[in-house]
Amino acid sequence: MRWLSVSRITFLALALIMPGLPQTAQASNSRIKDIASLQSGRDNQLIGYGLIVGLQGTGDSLRSSPFTEQSMRAMLQNLGISTQGGASNAANVAAVMVTANLPPFASPGSRIDVTVSSLGDATSLRGGTLIMTSLTGADGQIYAVAQGSVVVSGFNAQGQAAAIQEGITTSGRVPAGAIIERELPSKFKDSVNLVLQLRNPDFTTSLRVADTINAYAAANYGAPIAEARDSTEIVVQKPRTADLTRLMADIENLVVATDSPARVVINERTGTIVIGADVRISRVAVSYGTLTVQVTETPQIIQPEPFSRGETAVQPQTDIFVQKEGDGVAIVDGPDLRTLVAGLNNIGVKPDGIIAILQGIKSAGALQAELVLQ
């Protein structure tokens, strides 16, 4: 059986948005700590190479992963155990890459989570233990040491004729498995000023953050202290009488009306559509129709008459079925998000059809938003 689907979409821009309809959406209020981060308070990435032991025959095959055997021999030699002469066939060891994020203002002695990922041909890290592994930063300095039991969420099981697997068994986590040994060189209170970075860059939001901070500073310090440099950065000068930690605590709890550009995000692989609150659509007429052609092949076997000299033959038979749906023309007018979604739903199409409709409306110049395809 063969299927042929043809979608027909017709768009006609009728007019601009009707007068009297609201042109901007109501801004949402958020705390500064939720929309911005401190430039000096960013994470730092750490990486290391280590071994996981204690696996139940699911580790690296040493012939296929020679670096695992080299690492194991070096580790044993450091522990005073000679490994000269004799090959090792252990299957309970796996070489892994160890990664972690060093949080800002972390102090020696505190613990962080680490992630381990297999380097060789190990089939599972379940039940293993990560042995002492040094974690270095981009400058080559050791900032943490990791060790502990590995937690793996996935599992696999197999027999002679079947196998099943759920999740990933060649990577896992060691909760609180790394101890910080070195702190970052810079100190928070050594800073002359504070630099805030918006997570979603926007000039309007940046200016609003600066104005909100200056209103707070005028009431408490008698002068403005914030300046918006661009759509991302807001610089806050430290008053002479202010404590930097207390100043940051007060600023991050200030409430700001955020703004963002109108945007429609479409993921064609999963059929996901995310429409922002500020998206507007000029009045358009949409005709969406689906033509489905079903071709069915049912060949018939023809037998010869009894006691005849005929031969068995195959007679082809083809049935073609045509179905046409959704020929109506609907007017879509989106002065606000609720009306837009209701109008699209009234057309009675599936998400893939709505994706095609939104792309066509954008091509017609009636979608007053940025269309992002993923």
UniProtKB/TrEMBL annotation:
Residues 1-27 form the signal peptide. It comes from the Bacteria. Its main location: other. It is found in: Bacterial flagellum basal body. Keywords: Bacterial flagellum, Cell projection, Cilium, Flagellum, Periplasm, Signal. InterPro entries: Flag_FlgI. Coiled coil: none annotated. Assembles around the rod to form the L-ring and probably protects the motor/basal body from shearing forces during rotation. The basal body constitutes a major portion of the flagellar organelle and consists of four rings (L,P,S, and M) mounted on a central rod. HAMAP family: FlgI (MF_00416). Belongs to the FlgI family. NCBIfam families: PRK05303.1. This is Flagellar P-ring protein. It comes from Peteryoungia desertarenae. The lineage of its organism: Bacteria, Pseudomonadati, Pseudomonadota, Alphaproteobacteria, Hyphomicrobiales. The gene is flgI.
